[in-house]
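Reading group handout, session on sequence-to-structure problems. Before we discuss, look at one worked example. The prompt was deliberately terse, the way you'd type it at a terminal:

> structure Signal peptidase complex subunit 1

The input record follows.
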Amino acid sequence: MLPIFKSIPTHMDYKGQKLAEQIFQGIILISAVIGFVYGLIIEQFGWTVYIVLAGFALSCVLTLPPWPMYRRNPLSWQPALSEPSGESSQKPQESLKKKKHK
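And the output record:
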């Protein structure tokens, strides 16, 4: 892969995802209302479809790429815990004794 593609950020934080969803829904809703009213006035359903498709294209351009406004609240991950040597690498659930039901 070209090195230029590796430098492009591809992540979006949770608040950015919520913002992108709100922008997407708002643009679609506004374009649908404008398209419906305009198509009703000129009595051409085709214009309604064109306006809604234009709103969809605009919302995709604004919300699909991970713009910097969607990456303002990154998660701070906890550091990885190192396993002490000498202990088994079993899961905690496996090391517990199974209770016998009577």
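Points for discussion. First: The radius of gyration is 26 Å. Second: The helical segments are 3-6, 14-42, 45-63, 92-95.
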